[in-house]
Every structure is written in structure tokens, then in C-alpha cells.
């Protein structure tokens, strides 16, 4: 299980635009994006993304992240009429240890909009999800209309 962060190139807040954020969030929440890995929770911030991912038997972390970042970049470029890199190269990962409390880490991930002052109540932020919510098979329950 990994805590992941991918950052937008130049830290430009491209996901501050609701249409762009909704398009990227749809791709990042899509089960097909993660192959046989399972995304437990995620949040899309204006200039970065965090996720908590459990690798499947046939997945590597590098392949999962390459696929996710590539699919999100293609979707965003289509929406914006642009081309080129969306993300900084690479990503940050931290493997969780057995003693790490998964729900505490998940709360940390999804509370990012609160800590950043984007909202005063997490439910008001549209670009996040956690499997513990029980909506839409644990995916896209936190997506708003954009």
C-alpha cells in the first residue's frame, strides 16, 4: 500500500478550473485507470493529486502511475485544447508499514482541501473519494458536477 503524490508541472493550478478538475477526477477515479490495483482514497487539489493505492498482483507502482498520469493528461489536454506534459516527471511515494493506521492516512489525504483553506467542510469539496463512503463502489462518490 502506497501514499502517492503527483504534482502538476510548474505547480500551475490547472485543476482550479472546475471543468478541467472534473475531467481529470473522472479519469483518476476510474477503475480501468488502475488496472488490478485498488485506489482506496484520493483527492485532486488545484496543483497536485494524492492517492492511497493498494497494488494488485500484476501491477507495478511505476506502471500504475504512468498509466494514471498519462490518461489524466490526455483528458485534460482534450478539455483545454492543449498538448504536452501536464505533470512533473515522477511522483512521490511512501510505502505504508503494517503499523500505519490506513484510515488515519486516508483522513490525512482527503482532508487536504480543509488544510489548504479551500473549503470549511470536506463535503463541500467535489474532487475526492474514499472507498469507506460506500457510494458508486467506492469510486467517484466525491465527484461533483464540476
Automatic annotation (TrEMBL):
InterPro entries in the record: RAYT_transposase, Transposase_17, Transposase_17_sf
Pfam families in the record: Y1_Tnp (PF01797)
Transposase IS200-like domain residues: 1-112
Source organism superkingdom: Bacteria
PANTHER family for the chain: REP-ASSOCIATED TYROSINE TRANSPOSASE
Annotated protein name in UniProt: Transposase
Organism whose genome encodes this protein: Coralloluteibacterium thermophilum
